[in-house]
Amino acid sequence: MNPIIDLRSDTITKPTPQMRQAMADAAVGDDVFGEDPTVNQLQKKVTELCGKEAALFVPSGTMSNQIAINTHTQPGDEVICDYGSHIFNYEGGGPALLSGVQVHPLQGQRGVITAEQIKAVIRPADHHYAKSKLIELENTHNRAGGAIFPLDEINKIKKLADEHQLQMHLDGARLWNAHVATGISLAEWCDPFDSISLCFSKGLGAPIGSILVGSSEFIDRAHRYRKIYGGGMRQVGIIAAAALYALDHHIERLKDDHKRAYQLALKGHEVTVFDEHEHLGGMMRYGIPGFRTPRDVLDAEINRIIDLGVKTRMNCRVGKISRWTRSAKISMPYSWVWARKPVVHCRWQTALRPTLSQLQLSSRPSMTAACSMLESA
Asked: ω into residue 272 within 30 of 0, thus cis?
C-alpha cells in the first residue's frame, strides 16, 4: 500500500534531522527575563532581515497578530482588513474579545484591498462612529490561495494611512513565500508597516513559533501583552533554534515547493487564467493543490498524483456538500467526497477522476487548507 501524500497544509511540515540536532544543541536561558541567548539571536536576526528596530518571539501567529492589534489600538477603535483575512475569520473573534475593537472587513480581490476601498470607509471625526485606527493586510493571503499582495498597492495604502494617522500591521505568516517568489527583500516588504508578524512553523518547517517585528517602543509595549496572554516562555531557545535553522537553510528551499506545485498545475490541471497580481509565493492560485513544505513532498509523489489524473475546476462551491463519506489517501485541501460519486470536492472544486479503489480510501476527510505554486518557476 502506498503511503498517504498529504497536501492539506504547510503546517504539517516536520523538522528535519538537522533542525532537531540544532534544537538539541541550543544554548538556553530564561526568556521571560530576556536571558535566552538563542531567542535573543533569533530576534536580532529577524529584526535585521526586516529592517526594523526590535522583535518579540511568541508561540503562534494568532498570538502575534492579536498582540499587535492590542498594542496599536484602544477599546472602541476599528480595524480595517480584507473580508477573507485570518484575523477576521480564524482567530476566534480575538480583536473583539482581547482588544475591544471592531473589525471593518472589505471585499478584496483574492485578498487584495485597495487604497480607494480603504479611503471610502475611514471614519470621520464624529462621536457617533468608531475611530479608524489600524489597517491590517495579509501577505501572502491564506484564504485567497496564497496570492501575493502587490507592493505598489501596499505603498499606496501606506501613503493613505499616513495622511489619516492610521497604523499598519502585516500578517506576514507566509511573507517568506512572497520574498522567494518575487525576489523582493523582506526589508522592502516590511518597510511600509508599523508591525509585522512572521511564522516559522509553516513551510519553514519549525515545530512552533512566530515573531512580531516593529519599532523598539512598539515591541516594548507588545512585550507586556505577551505576558498578559500567557506567552512568556522560559528556556525556549530549544524552539528558537529551530527557527534560526529554518532561516539559514529553508527559505530558499521554498523555491522547490513552488516548482513542484507549478509542475502539478501544468501537468495535471486545466488552468487557463492568471491575474498579474496573483503571482503565487504562498498557497494556491485558483485552488491548485501544491505545497509549501521544505522537504516532505517529493517529485515522485507529484508524478503519482498526476498519474492518478488530478484535475481542477475553478468555480468552487463552498459548503454545498450535505454529508460525509470517505476521503482519498491523497489528502487535498478541504477535501470531501460525494456519496456514490468518485469525485473529491475541495474548497476549490478539485476533482479526482480515478476510481475510488485506486485512491485507497481512508475513513475521514481532510479539513485543513494548504499549498503553494509559482508561475515563474
From this structure: no
Distance of CA 94 to the CA centre of its chain: 17
The ranges assigned to domains in the chain are 5-11+253-352, 13-249
Give the 3-state secondary structure of residue 118: helix
> Quick one: CA torsion of 16, 174, 367, 304, rounded to 10 degrees?
-60
Residue 259: pLDDT band with limits 50, 70, 90 = confident
Say how many C-beta atoms besides its own lie within 10 A of residue 250's C-beta: 24
Question: What whole-number distance in Å separates Cα of residue 371 and Cα of residue 290?
Answer: 4
- Which burial class, exposed, middle or buried, applies to 116 when counting CB atoms under 10 A from its CB (0-12, 13-18, 19+)? exposed
When the candidates are 2.130.10.10, 3.40.50.300, 3.40.640.10, 3.40.50.720, the CATH number that belongs to 13-249 is 3.40.640.10
Strand residue runs (E) in the chain: 5-6, 54-58, 77-82, 102-106, 131-138, 167-172, 195-199, 210-214, 310-312, 330-331, 336-337, 344-345, 350-352
pLDDT in tens, 306-334: 665 544 332 222 222 222 223 333 333 33
| pLDDT of residue 358 exceeding 60 | no
Contact 53, 216 (CB under 8 A): yes
Question: What span, in angstroms and rounded, lies between the C-alpha atoms of 242 and 19?
Answer: 6
Task: Say which residues have a Cβ less than 8 Å from residue 293's Cβ, sequence separation at least 6.
Answer: 10, 12, 13, 203, 205, 257
8-state DSSP, 112: B
Contact present, 150 and 91 (Cβ < 8 Å): no
3-state secondary structure of 303: helix
